[in-house]
Structures are given as structure tokens and as C-alpha cells.
Amino acid sequence: MKYNFDEIIERRGSGCFKWDSNEDPNVLAMWVADMDFRVAEPIIDALNERTEHGIFGYSLQMDSFYEAITGWFERRHGWTIDRDWVSHCPGIVPALHFFAKTFVKPGEKIMMQSPVYYPFFGSAKKNNIDVEYNELIYKDGRYEIDFDDFERIAKDPKVKMFYLCSPHNPGGRIWTKEELERMGRICTDNGVLVIADEIHCDLVYPGHKNTAYGTLADDIVNNSIICIAPSKTFNVAGLQTSCLIIKNSDLKKKYDEFLATLGIMRPSAYGITGLTAAYAHGDDWLDQLLVYLNENLDYLRNYLKTYMPKIKMMEPDATYLIWLDFRELNVDSKEFHEILLKKGKVWLDEGYMFGEVGEGFERINIACPRSVLEVGLNRMRDALIAENLI
Ligand SMILES: Cc1ncc(COP(=O)(O)O)c(C=O)c1O
Fold first, then answer.
1. Closest ligand 1 atom to Cα of 34
2. Of 55, 45, 87, 72, residue with least CA distance to 243
3. H or E stretch at 221
4. pLDDT tens figures, 256-288
5. For residue 23, what pLDDT is reported?
6. Which of 16, 20, 28, 96 is deepest in the core (most CB within 10 A)?
7. From the CA of 232, how far away is ligand 1's center (Å)?
8. Which pLDDT value is given to residue 93?
9. How many angstroms is it from 237 CA to the middle of ligand 1?
10. Where in the chain is the domain with CATH 3.40.640.10?
11. Which atom of ligand 1 is closest in space to residue 95's alpha carbon?
């Protein structure tokens, strides 16, 4: 079937974090990382069928749940997963907190690359764990890894874990196989456990290919926990069902035991149904979505070039979250954000929330109907013209 990503669905008033968090109903929400698109028909059908069944007692992951996961990653990523490696978590952010409690002790440290999705360092700090930042190098409009610094940090005996964001949020970088192998090798050789957050792994632009961390050398994979979820790919974050792929049985046992101490057992009935339908029957919807997102990206690129040429877009390989560099405007980051929000009535994510190196950037979410993107960009442009910034 042909999906209509131009359809506008009013999300205000639906208890939507992205659209209902601002008191001003006129603000256009382009911040939180979910999409304003209707979910794939097979997922809605499966959830409706589940509702019609009419009983919502305790649920269990059936064979179909595991087959959907293993089938998807085999088919789309060339990654063979054994169902015995699959552990549950209610979300990747909760999992980051769980890892900070399970695999590091106070006084030890977690390494991560900066800028990065803010719950990475938030989860460490909330658990009183120190963070070491391997700052990414901004080169020719892209982020590159400073491997000397990476190795220096990994060799610190206090550093026990590395949170890898792959693909990278907010830079949209897909790390090459060589880069992943090099990071994985350094961590493995230095006893640093790798947490590979691959929540954005399906949202890849034409001409790019993501390497699943699970397809690297065996000893590297055995030193890792890989986080996957249908949440971003299929816009089902509200179902709060994610998975961890843990090939190393000792690590898996440790994680599962920790989960048991929290009394967390299984996903909800809707989470199981949604994930299963998404991974089993979501290919067609995703393929069409990727075309639409790429067109939105073209639209954004052209718009910036034409109307706001001093704002530079970091060319993403993946993700619908686009990192905008406004440093040429020579304006304070907080002031810039306030201008967009209060004068333009358009809400992007402040770059500095992703770490100090995010000063001078804003992150825009382009997973919305094109007409909404157009309104958002017009509002940005008009607000910046009114302030004599462009
Ligand atoms: C890299 C990354 N990890 C995790 C999440 C959120 O994961 P969850 O909703 O499963 O907690 C996001 C959401 O933006 C993200 O960008």
C-alpha cells in the first residue's frame, strides 16, 4: 500500500510529550525525537486485533516475537542474532541507567563521545558515575573520532564502560566498519565494556550503509551489549519496548539478574504486539518513510542555502535529527534559542544540552509532513530577519 506521509494528524491534546509540553498552543514542536507520521498499517491492525481480543492479563513473548527480531536484523542488517541473546528493557534510556548501576561502581567512569544525546551523560551523573568525554572533531562539516584521545581514555583503569551512539545523535554520522572495529578493539583490549546504542540504525539515507556492531569480530561482540528498538524506526516509542542483544552469557546473566532485582519481567501486551508486527511486517512502510525523509532533508538543505545560508546543516548519513550550525551568526546560544521559541514559535533542541561542544548548534527534527517543515522553516527565517541576524 502507498502511505501518505503528508497527512497532518493533530497530536496536541493526545498526551503527547512533544506537542503538549509547551503551554503556548501556537508553538511548532520540532524537538523530541519521535515522528508526526501515522504508524504503519500492519502495526495498527495488530494492536487493534489485540484490543479486540479483550483480555489484558500478564503477557509473554511468544516465538513470533523473537522470530520478528531475528528476521529483521538478518534481513536488513545481515546480522544473525540467536534468540537466547535477547534481553528485555523498557527503553534504551532506562537501560543506560541500569548499566550504570550494574557494570560500574562509584569512583569508576564511563566514556562517551561529545556532543551526544544528553541521557548518555545524564544516566551516568544521576548514578554518581563520572564521565570522560572523547570530544568529536568537527572537520569539513562532519564529526570525526579523535582516536589518540579515545585510546588515552580507554587506558584509564577507572574507565569501565563506553556508551557508543551508532548512528550518532546529534551528528547523524554512521561510523564506518573500520571506525567501529578500531573503537571496539581498543575497548576490548583495555577491559572497557561497550554499550552500542543502535536505536537509529534503520533510519539511513540513500547511499549509506550502517554496520551493525554485532557483525564485528567475535571477541569484540562478546565485550558488548547492543541496544535495539522499534521505537525510532516505527514511531512506537510510547509502547516502551526495547531489547538488548547480549551474546556474552556471563554479561547477560548479570544484566538479567539486575533486572530481576527491579522486579521488571516482561514487556506489556501492546509492546510485544507492536514490536512483533513492526519487525515482521514493517519493511514496506519503512522503505517509503526513508524516501520521504530524504526528500525532507533535500527540502531543508535547499531552504537553508536559499534563505539562511549562514546556518550550516551537518550532512547526516542517518537519523531524522539534523544538527544545525549557526556559529556564523555570532549570537549567544541561549538568545538564539529564545528567539526561535518566543519570536518564531518553533521549538528545536538546544545544542548545548548535548554537551558544551554543542554551543552554537540547534537540533531540528524533520520527521514531520513537509508542509509542517515548511512552516517551521519560514518561522525561523522570519524571526531571524526580524532580529537582523540574517
Ligand atoms: C541515541 C538514542 N538513544 C535512546 C533514545 C531513547 O530511547 P528510549 O525511548 O528507548 O528510552 C533516543 C531518543 O531520542 C536516542 O536518540
1. 14
2. 87
3. helix 218-222
4. 999 999 999 899 999 999 999 999 999 999 999
5. 87
6. 96
7. 8
8. 98
9. 9
10. 55-281
11. 11
Residues 6+ apart with CB under 8 A from 273: 46, 47, 49, 50
What is the spatial distance between Cα 233 and Cα 201, in angstroms, rounded to a whole number? 8
Task: Let me know the angle formed at the C-alpha of 78 by 76 and 84, rounded to the nearest 5 degrees.
Answer: 100
Give the binding-site residues of ligand 1, using a 6 Å CB cut-off: 33, 91-93, 117, 165, 169, 197, 199, 229, 231, 237, 242
Can you identify the CATH homologous superfamily of domain 17-41+283-385? Aspartate Aminotransferase, domain 1 (3.90.1150.10)
Written as nine digits, the cell of 382 is: 522570519
- Taking the CA of residue 33 as reference, the ligand 1 atom at the shortest distance is 14
Q: Which three cell numbers stand for residue 31?
A: 524537538
* pLDDT cut 90: percent of the chain above it: 99
For the structural domain made of 55-281, what CATH number should be given? 3.40.640.10
Residue 69 has pLDDT above 90, yes or no: yes
Q: How far apart are the first and last CA of the chain?
A: 43
CA of 330 to the centre of ligand 1 (A): 31
- CATH 3.90.1150.10 residue spans of the chain: 17-41+283-385
Q: Are 113 and 134 in contact (CB under 8 A)?
A: yes
Position in ligand 1 atom list of the atom nearest CA 242: 10
Cα 387 to middle of ligand 1, angstroms: 34
Residue 171 · residue 142 · CB < 8 Å: yes
